[in-house]
Amino acid sequence: MFCAAVMLTGSVLPVMAVGTDAQSAEETHIYTLSSSDSDPLGTLKKQMIETADSSEAISEDSSVLTAVGFDSTKTGLQNATLHLTSGKETLSTSYTEVAAVKVTEDTSPVIQLTSDTVNLNNGDEWNASSYIKYLYDETGKLPALKESGNVDTSTDGTYEAVYTVIDLEGQTSKASMTVNVTTPGPTPEELAAQAEAEAAEEAAQQAAAEKAAQQAVSVSSLSYSNSGSNPYSGGWSNCTYGAWQAVYENLGIALPSFGSATNWLASAQAAGYSVGSAPRAGSVAVYYGHVAYVSAVSADGSSVYLIEGGYCGHYNERWAANGGTSSQPLIGYIYF
Question: How many other C-beta atoms are found inside a 10 Å radius of the C-beta of residue 264?
């Protein structure tokens, strides 16, 4: 038998020991509760655990209390048999004692909150009444309620919400709660969407810049004649004629004959001209089987604006991908 409890009064009562026929000198512990207690068995259990004379730790969460002969609705002193069972799945320990339970009448209003702390996101609604767990007044009429603390869910911070209840006689009780308001960070989904939006915006800006670069060259302002001593025949129906003529009319350079289109890069390099793989305005692009004058280069260098002959048998201007195509890849550029 276990006999341990908070002595809330100075009196003790002699009682019969449980399971014996003789008088015992053991004490009957007196536990005191309020008539407004919303969880009387929980309060009794807590008092028994706090004063238990036992080397074994007792958990409030895993223990169970039964009280025989106890009525929480009646005020005054009552004799009750309290049985506390605390244990795990395979091992349990039981305590039983005969105790006196004193139920006192509570004349002040009572308020209990659902928690000591609540966390809210910035922008959430603050509904003070939703955090009230228990409200009681002995008159049977709900007391007046006032909440203060100026919780502002539009501003991050820590607030104290104070609840005050007032009964018809002017008696008050208070309870408080800490309210934390924070702005949550972006979720992984939101971060992914943001990155996707930024990539799309960057692509749109790049496309706009390329389009602007393309539009910077006015096709109508370019005109070509047959001036100079062009070593190639066929006029603008011949790509080598067109490349030679475009260099002459734009740069004033009369090139020698470099042979067929595919040989232009090697012939120009042998003649002392610089060559390379990077596009430049005012250069000649040499492809397998084709040559063309580069009039402009896009902002990102991915496209070149070509002046060419032999395009479907005539003079032509167009934007083309730097590097050529799979059927007509780029060999390199001749610089002047």
Answer: 28
